[in-house]
Amino acid sequence: MTLKETAIRRIRAQFRHPSGFWGPAVGWIMASRSSNRRRNVWAVSLLNVERHERVLEIGFGPGIAIQAISRIAGEGYVCGLDHSEQMLHQASRRNAAAIRAGRVDLRVGSVESLPVFDAPFDKILSVNSLMFLTRPDLVLERLRGLLRAGGRIAVAQQPRGPGASDATAAAMGEEIAAALGRAGFSDVRIETLRLRPAVVCAIGANPSDGRM
Predict the structure, then answer these.
(1) How far apart are CA 22 and CA 7, in angstroms?
(2) 188, 202 contact by CB (below 8 A)
(3) Which pTM does this prediction carry?
(4) Domain locations in the chain?
(5) 17: closest CA among 66, 105, 108, 87?
(6) Is the pLDDT reported for residue 24 higher than 70?
(7) Cα 183 to Cα 189: distance, rounded to the nearest angstrom
(8) What is the pLDDT of residues 144-186, one digit of tens each?
(9) 33-205: CATH topology
């Protein structure tokens, strides 16, 4: 492996799990890049969050989507789970007022080892995180267990790196939608945001009739 290839691999690893010396800079890039902000706010809009609802975000990063959700769910509860201590620090600063008010709860943890929550969620969001996992179907099935009957999940992904294209995004959308179906979600649909490359988001519902 060349020096350039090694550097690229390390940079990509930072965006998956910001840490160490470069962690703060990676978080700042995530928060300040306009395309990242548009992607997160758009994904939140697809969930149609209501004022009283309980919402969980997996992989909250610098807390952009958490902030957008908490502004809507003013009488609800917004919880975030991320595996990066650095992202917890940045997201906590960005959402400090809502955390003090008890409306936002941010935690460090793994989606592959989910904590116990005291009540089901109405909505679950993931932006550029779940499809990096080795067993996304199993994780999605576990997340469905955290949703109330009729609750909804939105899983958004934007391909990055060499060769990333709208075609790559479309294939990702189909892959996510299929994974949601295998995990037991119903009424699955795919939405697309025309960035460069495109962002895809698959939305599914937890069946209210007991179907698996």
Answers:
(1) 13
(2) yes
(3) 0.84
(4) 33-205
(5) 87
(6) no
(7) 14
(8) 999 999 999 999 999 887 889 999 999 999 999 999 999 999 9
(9) Rossmann fold (3.40.50)
